[in-house]
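Quarterly update from the structural biology core.
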Amino acid sequence: MALSIVEGCVNCWACAPVCPSDAIFEATPHFMIDAKKCTECEGDYANPQCASICPIETVILDAAGDPLNPPGSLTGIPPETMAAAMAEIQAR
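Predicted structure, tokenized:
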């Protein structure tokens, strides 16, 4: 049982201070989670705090490798319509 941070993390420092287990540490090229320390916030919070505050989708994974913030969860834009939304924004 441990979460992980993958490529896409922008090293914004949001997650490290909220981790009750001090499992998150700065690394290159992005922050990492010490699997031996990570408790997934069990016993402290209802939801993993790092994923609750992370502003980037798909960079914090659960033990099964599934993103806790899947595509569209933060933007509210379903993945299937993201390309059209990006084209519309860039056309402005």
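DSSP finds two helices and four strands in the chain.
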